């Protein structure tokens, strides 16, 4: 059933506190994804299971973390964010404790499932809560929250590596698992959902926002959702492929260990590229979110996706030059990460705030769908080389850029204006029967009068 969003005045500084809590919680789950690589070789040295078998745990984690977000988000919209984040904190702590005692691949895979459930609960809840607290700055809020996912790893990778070297990976899993889990548990007590949402500023003509809250089943029946989903898959597949294969690509280009000097720093091309990728990715998420709050979601998508296509084309032609490889991959990841801020913001604008966590969770499963396409990159590269892989990714990003501007923008605007017009006309016809004051004081009383468009 469609309902109107209850509008309230700005909650002031308290919402920024909620945003900060969400960012810290995201930082606490970052190591589940970005810190995992530090444990692979120590685990293999201990049990000799082989890298492919150990890395399967990472794949299981990503799929579980992605595909269960809509389920976890449904609990958020129904019972509130606090209990779901607390549950996530327990699960991520338990996951790394299990990893510290894992003596078989089965146990390692079970821990990956537990970690995925916990990470999805925290990720989906924090992003969804940010969308609800910041209807006027959804891009910035979603981008800052998503950036915490990478920033947390940047702060703890060195301590984790040092502890593995000094005390072993089992002790590191146990210590950091308990620490991360407890931190999320404590912060969860201070998480609050807004009682209403601030009315969007009407002067923001580039940000059409729905005043109607669509339930998840209604969202799944809208064509605009599936167009957005398709574009998300097209862009995410290229980024996930590049992130997963950047090492093999650098080695095949024979530049992985070539020294590169930039801005007074010198290191091997592959190491330099990975370091800059994390920095640019983390910066790009809130930056492009802020840009989208200013010039509009679709215009920002076009700029980002077109730039991504240009950088991938540059890599396909000049990627064998070390300095070009470093800079092109850095810029590429700087514009790639914005999908994790722009799509949540666009979803919230289009489908309303009340069910924003669940609706964004459904859209976020596009990352899991894209992950299923990543192995195709290895198949294409083995047959035709990495240049062919880059050309396919260029085509996907260029198509996504044009689709955002020429398809998503008019479809979304027509959907919002048309739906609100239908709902408004229905309510207007109902006013004589229910009474003007009754309608204004109790918006929920006429929810039943609104039909699905």
UniProtKB/TrEMBL annotation:
Pfam family, one: MFS_1
UniProt keywords, alphabetically: Membrane, Transmembrane, Transmembrane helix
Transmembrane segments: 12-34, 54-76, 83-102, 108-128, 140-161, 173-191, 224-247, 301-318, 324-343, 388-408
SUPFAM superfamilies noted in UniProt: MFS general substrate transporter (SSF103473)
Ranges for domain Major facilitator superfamily (MFS) profile: 1-412
GO cellular component: membrane
A GO molecular-function descriptor: oxalate transmembrane transporter activity
Protein's name according to its UniProt entry: OFA family oxalate/formate antiporter-like MFS transporter
Source organism of the structure: Bradyrhizobium macuxiense
Lineage: Bacteria, Pseudomonadati, Pseudomonadota, Alphaproteobacteria, Hyphomicrobiales
